[in-house]
Each structure stands twice: as C-alpha cells, then as structure tokens.
Design brief:
The complex is a heterodimer of chains A (about 350) and B (about 220).
Chain A (H helix, E strand, L loop, with lengths): L5 E12 L2 E13 L4 E5 L6 H8 L7 E6 L2 E2 L5 H8 L2 E5 L10 H11 L4 H14 L15 H13 L5 E5 L7 H18 L2 E6 L2 H7 L2 E6 L2 E7 H6 L4 H8 L2 H5 L7 E10 L4 H9 L4 E10 L2 E9 L4 H13 L4 E4 L5
Parallel strand pairs in A: 3-8, 3-9, 6-7, 7-8
Antiparallel strand pairs in A: 1-2, 1-4, 4-5, 9-10, 11-13, 11-14, 12-13
Helix pairs in contact in A: 3-4, 3-5, 4-5, 5-6, 11-12
Chain B lengths: L4 H38 L9 H16 L2 H15 L6 H26 L2 H9 L4 H12 L1 H19 L10 H11 L3 H29 L5
Classes of the chains: A alpha/beta (about 350), B mainly alpha (about 220).
Chain lengths: ~350, ~220
Amino acid sequence: METPIIQIRDLGKEFRTANGPVRALQDINLEVDAGEIFGIIGLSGAGKSTLVRCVNYLEVPTEGDVLFEGRSMASMTEKERRATRQSMGMIFQQFNLLAQRNVIRNVCFPLELIGVPKKEARERAMELLRTVGLEERALAYPAQLSGGQKQRVAIARALATNPKVLLCDEATSALDPDTTKQILELLKEINRAMGVTILVITHEMSVIEAICDRVAIIDQSRIAEVGAVSEIFVDPKSAIGRRLIMGEAAHQAEAFKQQRSIRIIFDGRESAEPVISNMVLACNAPVNIMYAATRDIQGKAMGQMVVQLPEDAASAERVIRYLRSVRIPYEEVGENEI
Amino acid sequence: MKFDATTIQMLRTGIWESFYMTALSSLFAYVIGLPLGVILVVADQDGIHPIPWLQKILGVIINLLRSVPFLILLFIALPLSKIVIGTRIGSPAIIIPLTIAAAPYVARVVESSFRELDAGVIEAAQSMGASTWQIIWKVLLPESKPSLLLGAALAVTTILSYSAMAGFTGGGGLGAIAINYGYYRYEPFLMWISVILLVVMVQVIQEVGTRLSKKGDKRIR
C-alpha cells in the first residue's frame, strides 16, 4: 500500500496563556491518503482549526509529529518547512486575499514568492482563473467580488504552485447555501481532475456529506472516531458523532421513550423506495416517527430513523416481522440510548 | 510696519525654510522610523518573527524619546548638530533634533498602520511559504499603503509644527518669524500672516495625504 500523504502522529498542542496552559489537541493520530477528500468535523472550540494549522506547521505542535509524504515536519528547518508549504495550498473562511492587489496578481502571488518569471506566472494564473470560472474578472479587485468569487480566487491562488494537498479551513462557512454548494462542487472537481488531496475542516455535517470520502470527528481536543463517511452516517459510534449527525432531534426524542421503539437503519437501498409507507401499508399499523436522519448520498438512502411501535403487542410484532422479511436492518432502542 | 517687498521676501524665505526643514526631517524620520515600526510589529511576541527582548527594548527607547518635550530635546540635541552639520544655529541645525524627535513618533504611527492589517492575510502568505522578508515587502508594506499615507500626513504636519520652534535657537522658517515679530517685537500683523501661512501648509499636506491614500486604496469600490 502507498504511504499516506499526510500522517499525523501522537500530535498534541498546548497553548500557554495568561490564565495557564490550555490544551487544544491531544493524542491525534490520523492518516490521509493521497487523492482522497478527508473531512475533519467538530463543534467550535474542538481544536479543528488548530489541527489544520499543525498540518502545515503554521502552528508548531507541542507533542508528536506530522509526516508529509513520509518526511517529518518536526525535524525540518524553517526553510524546509516553507518549501513544504508550497506543496500544501490553504484556503480560509475569510478568504484572506490581498486587498491592494487585483485578482490576477493575487493568483500570481505564490508564484512570485518562488521567483517564477512574471509572464509565465500570468499565464499560469489565467489558466487557473479559467478553471475556477473567473477569467473575465482578472483585473477586478477583491472588494469588487462576491464572497463566492473571492473564495474562487483564493482556490486558484492556493493551486498556483501545483500543490499536492489543499487544506480548507471552514472554507464555506462564510458563504450562503447556494454558493457553498458551488464551491464544494468546484473542490470535488479539482480533486477529481487534478488529483489534489483535500483536507476539509468544517463544523457542518452537510459539507462532509457532500464531498468527503472519510471523516474524523474531533471532540474536546481528541479524535472521537474516524471512518468512511457512509459508515459513520449509518452507525455513528461516538456520542458526538450521533449529536453531529442527528442534530437537535436526538435530544427531543428522549422525551418519547416510554413506548417500545426501534431504530431502522438505511444502509444504502434506493432512496426512491418508500420504506416506511410500505411498512405501514403492509402491516396496517400506524407507527410514530420520533426522529429521522437520512440523507440521499449518490442515490442511496443513508442514515437512520427511530419509530415508536404501535401500542398493542400484536401490531408491533407484525411490524418487526415485516422488517425482517424485507431485510431492513433494525434494532430495539433501550431506555437510555439513542 | 509696512507690507513691502522686503517683508514679502522674508515671508517667502520663511516658507522655503519651513518647507525644507520639514521635508528633510520627515525624510530622515521615515528612513529611521519606518524600519523601527516594522521591527515593533514583526518582532512582537505574536509577530511573524518574534524577538521579544528586542521589541521590548525598542519600545522603551521610543517611549523615552517621545516623553521628552521637544523644546528640551531641541537644546539637548544641538551639540549633536554641531558635530554632524557643523553649526548649532540656523535652520539646518534644527534638522537633527527634529529627526530625533520625529523618528520615534513615525515608528509608532507606522506600527499602528501595520497593526490594522488583517492577521489572516499574513497567515495566508505564510501558508504559501513566504519568508519574513517577503511578508514585509510583499504583504505588510503594500497592503498598509493607504494607512501609511494617512499616517505620513499626520507625521509631516506634526513635524512642521515642531519646526516652528526653530526660532528659539536661531533657526528660520515661518515659526521663527511669528516668534521674532509677534512675541519679541509686538508686531501681531506679521505673526498672524505667518500663522495663516502655516495653517495653509498644514491643510495642503493633510489634503494631499488624504487624497493619495484614497486614490491608491483598492478596498474602495
């Protein structure tokens, strides 16, 4: 097997503040494979932004190491680290464009840093602006662009030096839902067409769902769980995972737990299939849907739904038997679990 | 007193002397103060190249110089003018104390311009592998340009008003005319003319600074 492009080894980070040390990251171990889109999700303050800055050593970790293509960042000199950063583009929530430079000169900026001749840099920049669909705004200044356009410029700029990895720190958090969708599509396209490995930091499950292959959930400075996005959606193991996927519904459902309930798992059958309606019609018994978290991931229904079974035992049994017969996975939900 | 050709000639010389004292002192003050301002920001604890001891010492020296009243500094620094320029009287002699007084002021003005800059932009440059020098030359200075120009208008008008004290040490300029005629010889008319001319100079400098700053600022649509 190929060496993962990024290996995070026993990484920890402690900030020294006026109020004593603050632990931002602890025992982080992650591997990102070349060519994948890897997501890191967590609530604000979980440490995800610090983690992405440790990957390119903008923040120097206090423990552990990061290996980029097998080379230890910890043992590099500052100069070597700067050279390594040129293989890792980064985009930000607030875009961070140079306000006094126009679009094309922003995209040329990283090329200028490594001494690429001006003409060559301009040609490369125009090519990238075509990729992100902004060639006709090459002479505009950032103040004249919308948020989505600014992020496109930032993406073009981050890709100028042909990096192997693109780090995205909450890259869509300042954008509206439509623009978010477009930017995510663009990232996916860049990953597919250029083979750039993408590391996405976000607090939104919808971002992970839209583009990521694998995801790590980070909670209180530690990794809570890591896995394929489809697996974690079906069956989140950690409390924080359930909370992120179910959202607030998980809490509301607590109130209804007196009656016998089951969790129905959607593990990828056709999303067009009306599972619950069929079940109700077949069993001639009403069920009470307490909460549902299902997503249509590339035409497959993924997720889960908790339903309260009918009060009379016979009807309840009919529902159970129906689910078994059509091979829909389910499990009984106990008093204290969701 | 009559407003004759001699008076006009004296005022013209005054304007010229005020102008070159201010211009040269401002130039030297920026040659010294701009790099100091860069160090104050870059070498800061959270700066892009932290050298906290240097930053702190520099901060103390700047505060020290800035707390000495200019009139006092003027007299203290005159022996230095004697060494550097060869005389301790007249307009050229005051350029040395003016520069010493203005450089730390310029350093602080420049520092505040740099601090206005969004830290995210510097972080972006770092993420692209920019070195400290590259960040200073390609990010810090050009991105702060509009603010630096506004700061320059502030610094130059301050230096102009300081230069008016040259009169006390045998220097020239409009300030000297105002002091010599208005204060020592009770000729308020000439004093007011000089003051009005100084006001006009300040207005012009400020206006030029503001316009250059606005014109060059690409953040304005």
